[in-house]
Design goal:
Order of helices and strands: HHHHHEEEHEHEHEEH
Number of domains: 2
Number of strands: 7
Number of helices: 9
Largest sheet: 5 strands, mixed
Structural class: alpha/beta
Strand content: 15-25%
Radius of gyration: 20 Å
Helix content: 40-55%
Length: about 220
């Protein structure tokens, strides 16, 4: 086994064994895709800022590693980081992706906060009423709930703060609240959890529940 193969995760090694003999180029691509996953994981967890991510993605573009750009594009587009992301992907034809950095778009007001293991407790204490959408990239029902959270964040602006927490990247918080199924909404008032809702809910149903917690009939 080559030295670089020893660094692969057990899941990747298992995939390689199932696929059978591969070319050296194919094996190196798999290794680079795994490194990209780690890079994006650091970005989603807040351990890597957007400028550092941009530098790495720009290197992929310069090296003509389109398979890495496409994988990054797909995973970023399906994440909570996509809205307001200053890194813009553009199709140039013939399957070629190009990226640009438009920093001015970072100044947009962020209605849905991005939570992680590091800032979770601080935000819970600071917000009088907080709704946390616990999700993961692979979760289809989570993608159904995401636009509803965005709409409610706008409609309840100044009354309720909304946030997202990726449970795959922030396992300690998921374990603390025993999140076994997603999407799960955690509702906090004055730093204390007052409700936990599991599964995708229609906007009207969720709004009615939030109104009860606000002590009002409608907004």
């Amino acid at each position: 086994m080559a030295d670089w193969e020893k660094e692969l995760s057990p899941s990747i090694k298992d995939k390689l064994n199932k696929i059978g003999e591969m070319t050296q180029d194919e094996k190196l691509k798999i290794k680079e895709l795994e490194k990209l996953d780690l890079l994006l994981r650091d970005f989603f967890k807040g351990n890597l800022d957007v400028h550092e991510l941009w530098d790495r993605l720009k290197e992929f573009e310069k090296q003509d590693k389109q398979y890495l750009l496409r994988d990054a594009y797909a995973k970023l587009k399906g994440s909570f980081k996509w809205k307001g992301l200053p890194i813009k992907f553009e199709e140039k034809g013939k399957g070629i992706l190009s990226i640009e950095f438009r920093e001015e778009e970072e100044t947009e007001t962020e209605l849905v906060l991005d939570l992680n293991d590091g800032n979770f407790d601080k935000v819970v204490k600071e917000q009088p009423m907080l709704v946390v959408d616990c999700w993961a990239e692979w979760c289809a029902p989570c993608r159904m709930v995401a636009p509803i959270i965005d709409q409610l964040a706008e409609e309840y602006r100044g009354k309720i703060t909304f946030a997202k927490l990726n449970v795959d990247h922030n396992r300690s918080i998921a374990a603390r609240y025993q999140i076994m199924s997603i999407p799960t909404l955690l509702v906090f008032k004055n730093g204390q959890m007052v409700d936990q809702k599991v599964g995708a809910m229609p906007k009207q149903v969720l709004a009615a529940e939030l109104n009860k917690l606000l002590g009002q009939v409608s907004i």
